[in-house]
Amino acid sequence: MREKKGRRKIQKLKYNFPLEEDRLLYAVVTEANKGIGLETVRRLAAAGLTVVLTARDEKGGVVATRALQASGLSNLDVQDPKSVESLAKFIHDQFGRLDVLVNNAGASGVMVDEDGLRALNIDPASWLNIDKITSATTQLSGRAMDMVQGVIKSTYETAKECLNTNYYGVKRVTKALIPLLQLSHSGARIVNVSSLRGELRRIPSEKTREELGDIDTQQRRKSMESWKDFCTI
């Protein structure tokens, strides 16, 4: 997705008290046009931070930014290296540093059969985003979980998107912004948002669970092998 320069303007937050330049705090929240990301932006802004809301969906990002009336918008696709580089340059040029990075962008790795949901008397509209899918599937168990699993399908493409977003995307964004975080005057923070779907006990393959759970001997090469298994299991 190409970024449009017209959307890359920042509106400074309105503070209730004056802050000196070296006391200002700057934050970036990825995929923050809805759900947890949007509320994170709201809370950070309320705490006095200048927040850059990023979103892959330009229209959704604009709507969210207007609703908050306090933050700026930057288009970002964490799967696109050029998009990430553009964000880093934007932060550098506008603020010169970064204090908080919240990696919120995520992909569920599944496809949902809408007709199947309707057959179970479930409104598809309430399931068509990762927050709702994660929340619902982690609260179900037993027979109810089996019923829902029947309408949630995983494919190679959805698994690949999941890895490119949840793993490589987080690494890509973090690596690009670390130089700016190191310039923080108050000690930088990196927050990685996850979900119960990422718990090892939810991985079907016992071998994969053991490998990922062995932190002491886990190496990058072994991790890469595990990611390949993730797309083929």
UniProtKB/TrEMBL annotation:
<comment type="similarity">
    <text>Belongs to the short-chain dehydrogenases/reductases (SDR) family.</text>
</comment>
<dbReference type="GO" id="GO:0016491">
    <property type="term" value="F:oxidoreductase activity"/>
</dbReference>
<dbReference type="InterPro" id="IPR002347">
    <property type="entry name" value="SDR_fam"/>
</dbReference>
<dbReference type="GO" id="GO:0016020">
    <property type="term" value="C:membrane"/>
</dbReference>
<keyword id="KW-0560">Oxidoreductase</keyword>
<dbReference type="Pfam" id="PF00106">
    <property type="entry name" value="adh_short"/>
</dbReference>
<keyword id="KW-0521">NADP</keyword>
<protein>
    <recommendedName>
        <fullName>(+)-neomenthol dehydrogenase-like</fullName>
    </recommendedName>
</protein>
<dbReference type="InterPro" id="IPR036291">
    <property type="entry name" value="NAD(P)-bd_dom_sf"/>
</dbReference>
